[in-house]
Amino acid sequence: MFISEKEIEVRYAETDQMGVVYHANYLVWLEMGRTQLIQDLGFSYAGLEKDGYLSPVTNVNINYKAPVKYGDNVKVRIWIEKHGKLRTTYGYEIVHTDGTLSSTATTEHVVVRKEDFKPVALAKIDAAWDSKYKEIVKES
């Protein structure tokens, strides 16, 4: 299984009144991880958008295990959990530098045409990208 990693240095602005990272910021980190994975595979989400397509999130699930605080450094680990004709599920772990698991997550996405949000199979847009996802997917 191919796993990509993105390092995150926690900024003060990402924390809440309790001194821990505000839960919504994890969504931003997941996006950063997805972008890193796509780049590591040699593709470009910005290029997908330029070609007239989007990949909106249709579902997100985050399980918080241990807090992350200002000044901490964490890694977002990301992989392809599932990849079907229209839907891709990404898997994530956010891990402290000492190896402590902070959270786990999944996001589901579909590719749609920008003009009308009609779903389109990734294989029809970029066969190489689709093939790479099928090659590295966790679940066969």
UniProtKB/TrEMBL annotation:
The domain of life for this entry's organism is: Bacteria
SUPFAM superfamilies in the cross-refs: Thioesterase/thiol ester dehydrase-isomerase
Q: Name one Pfam family in it.
A: 4HBT_2
**Which UniProt keywords are present, listed alphabetically?**
Hydrolase
Query: According to its UniProt record, which protein family does this protein belong to?
Result: Belongs to the 4-hydroxybenzoyl-CoA thioesterase family.
Q: What is the name of the protein in this document?
A: Acyl-CoA thioesterase
Q: Which organism is it from?
A: Psychrobacillus faecigallinarum
